[in-house]
Design goal:
- The chain is of the alpha/beta class and 201 residues long.
- The chain has one domain: Rossmann fold, CATH 3.40.50.880.
- The chain is 26% helix and 29% strand.
- It has six helices and 14 strands.
- The protein has helices spanning 12-21, 32-37, 49-59, 62-68, 79-82, 186-199, and strands spanning 2-5, 26-29, 40-43, 74-77, 87-88, 94-95, 103-106, 116-121, 123-124, 139-144, 146-149, 155-160, 164-170, 175-178.
- It has an eight-stranded mixed beta sheet.
- β12 and β13 (164-170) form a beta hairpin.
Length: 201
């Protein structure tokens, strides 16, 4: 069972639709005990970093997420990925979950359209269980104006958007984050969700 965290700021509809389509057992919850019982956790997110972190704080689940991230797979999607990092300067300075070292800043290029919206090819830099059974090239769907800045060791894949934009990241243990939306990224994106389910077994 995968717990999809409902904190009032997540894109639950598309994520849950994909999980349902794949027959992946899941529950949408803000209950701490249910998160503890789950085999894995998904943290979705849309909107602005400070508002999302404030909503998450209001649920009282911040410490519970950090605790579970030490022992079971956790996948942050889009803004949910950005929240895995230490902080963001979106609309001021805001502390994140601190599960992966790094910070989130606006995409710095003046040569491309912001927000970055649409399909982009992943440049895979290291192996990952999330990429099993997926042949290159891999194109995934992005919608974001801010990006992570982190050590290359945390980056599984990036895309080139007039610069290196981390697209799939990890803490090297249980925590993963995808800047793109796997649930909107066709069959290869769906395979990533299947692979995440396999990690939970």
């Amino acid at each position: 069972m995968i717990a999809v965290i409902d904190y009032g700021a997540g894109n639950l509809f598309s994520v849950c639709n994909a999980l349902k389509y794949l027959n992946i057992a899941h529950t949408v919850t803000k209950d701490a005990a249910e998160i503890d019982r789950a085999d894995a956790v998904i943290l979705p997110g849309v909107g602005a970093f400070p508002a999302a972190m404030a909503s998450l704080q209001e649920t009282g689940l911040v410490d519970k997420i950090k605790e579970n991230a030490q022992k079971k797979p956790l996948l942050g999607i889009c803004l949910g990925m950005q929240m895995l990092f230490e902080r963001s300067d979106e609309n001021g300075d805001c502390e994140g979950l601190g599960l992966i070292p790094g910070e989130v800043h606006r995409i710095p290029s003046q040569n491309v359209i912001i927000p970055h919206m649409g399909w982009n090819e992943l440049v895979i830099t290291q192996e990952s269980p999330l990429l099993k059974h997926i042949e290159t090239p891999v194109y995934t769907y992005f919608v974001h104006s801010y990006q992570a800045f982190c050590d290359d060791r945390s980056i599984i894949a990036y895309c080139d958007y007039d610069g290196k934009v981390p697209a799939l990241v990890t803490d090297g243990k249980f925590v993963f984050g995808s800047q793109y939306h796997p649930e909107k990224s066709g069959e290869k994106g769906l395979q990533m969700l299947r692979n995440f389910e396999e990690l939970a077994k």
